[in-house]
Amino acid sequence: MYAIVEIAGQQFKVSKDQKVYVHRLPNAEDEKVTFSNVLLIDNNGAVTVGAPAINGASVEAKVLKHLKGDKVLVFKKKRRKGYKVKNGHRQYLTQIVIENIVVK
């Protein structure tokens, strides 16, 4: 059984006991979170598609920890002009574990 759910503006394919890295959530560590914007559920071949979301369906998760992602280097250059800029960026992430997919 898996579901496609929208978390923090992005869509994720999740299943039970799966760990997922999402954009930083405002919840504290070890706190339960419920995502109600479930777009699709596949229950052993029985597919339910929402329009746009499935009424009564939700995904329950637990926040494991907050962390920062790997550094991404951004390098800009314009040839023959002497213009070079090097920047770095580290995204703030939250690791969650999916505890349950609820279907009504």
From TrEMBL:
GO terms for biological process: translation. Coiled coil: none annotated. GO terms for cellular component: cytoplasm; ribonucleoprotein complex; ribosome. It comes from the Bacteria. Belongs to the bacterial ribosomal protein bL21 family. HAMAP family: Ribosomal_bL21. This is Large ribosomal subunit protein bL21. It comes from Capnocytophaga endodontalis. The lineage of its organism: Bacteria, Pseudomonadati, Bacteroidota, Flavobacteriia, Flavobacteriales.
